[in-house]
């Protein structure tokens, strides 16, 4: 009996322990659930909901029928959210309505607000402005007032947004100038532009960037300008602190961000083509502009057999005059010079007004006493040689007499090389073929022109690390002439200079009987001994010339190092697609090799070339079914095509895996930074929009790579790994 009782006690104790264990487990589940719930709630609370005042303005803030948004301010807001994790809620309305809600605290942030003492009492302003804008009075391009200046605005009706800084500046301009204009006030852009379109006002006030060329409006008077900000509601000091930190980070990490936005949305605005009063006076006093050029430097500049100037110089000047509507007021006069030094000397003697082409080198420009324009052409440099590449091709390098850039480039990049001077580019190539020189350094455009010819088609080339940037020059002190040139450059279509070279490259690559005889001299001599030599020679010439045309076309469009399409093919594809929005599954990919300079310096250029070829084959083998892959620079690639959404990730994973698994003959590994973007990610994007975004993502990937690996982009290890 006692044993049974003992056993019963043990069973009871076991049951109690089991119950306690179950209770403990339930308690732990409740605790963990509560902690998880609190964590999720805290995470949601960390993401701030920010209300944004949205008043539509061309190029600045726009909303389409499908509620997709675009514009400089929209992109700016999105970039800020990347650093603050803000989540936006938009409040739409006219300017008056939105500003009233903002000052009342119903809206948290308002983009595009200028700072004044009065506004500083009602709103908070960040340490950094979003940008700077000017305010102009616009009329229609076909209005009789268009060719005139502000004096013609007396007593006309002018529309302006009320309660804006433009209003105060217009009123002051009207009073101080005694124009007696009839100023009419509107609550926002929509009503103001509606009145202008309905001819209720003769003129209207708007910013320098918010008028597109297709709007058929021209500015005729400047009334003022100011910085504008992403303003914060008075009660949201927490948002101001977030904003200042974000803007500081963007300024440090992405210093070119605001410039990219201006280029994206405001290039070629109506204001950039408006001559100042001083510039207009300069044109009236000097209806002829004398332009000096470096002769025998095709496709940039040269003289044809009839003594007429040719090359992209004439195309650039004609297009710039057309953009500024000066084609009937200004006549260009061209003068050829045999060297850069002669041309600079003529510029300083006032024999010419403008010199082209000039290297974009500020230090050299200061020594020469000239002002440089913005960059017109950017091109890669190549070392051209005959046979197999080795270090000996750098021993004797041909340089054209008078080509200061080429000579300085060789001395700077190959200080140990012997310079062998030649008369022109053709004699330079002939010296390399004959062995009188080991190589010649020329830019990519000239290389393509020469190596597409029959005589030089078997020559080889390797890319060089430093490219060439070409611009125009004026005599130091000619600030008005320089500003006039800058206006013309700003209005040029994208890649205009590069695409203009193609017709001249084609001329250099035309097949001729002389080239045929040069390349087949022994066969031609043998055939000449035969009675039917003339007939056979003619037939052979016809057959080979047809094949040559096909070969020339391929050589002009295929990169001879990698076998994929080259920069020319890419530029033609860009022109063919145009500026129309792309949609659907259209994808743009930008890629750039990592560590190429390190490989070149430590393993040699053959190992570097092997990397370039491997990257090209890796990209092309995977992307070819969907579109085209192009080599657009020394170690830069681009791809465009249509990739279905469901296949994209697999495609880009294969690219990454193929690159990671490749090992070269010298043990070098393949690493590329890739950025890609699909059309569906951006509202109504053009090819240019996709390219800018893809390149931005690619550079972010490259920065991340070098930060994580601890390597220096110049080829050395950073920190302790040096």
From TrEMBL:
It comes from the Bacteria. SUPFAM superfamilies: Nucleotide cyclase (SSF55073), Periplasmic binding protein-like II (SSF53850). The chain crosses the membrane at residues 521-544. Pfam families: GGDEF, SBP_bac_3. NCBIfam families: GGDEF (TIGR00254). This is Diguanylate cyclase (GGDEF) domain-containing protein. Residues 584-719 form the GGDEF domain. Keywords: Membrane, Signal, Transmembrane, Transmembrane helix.
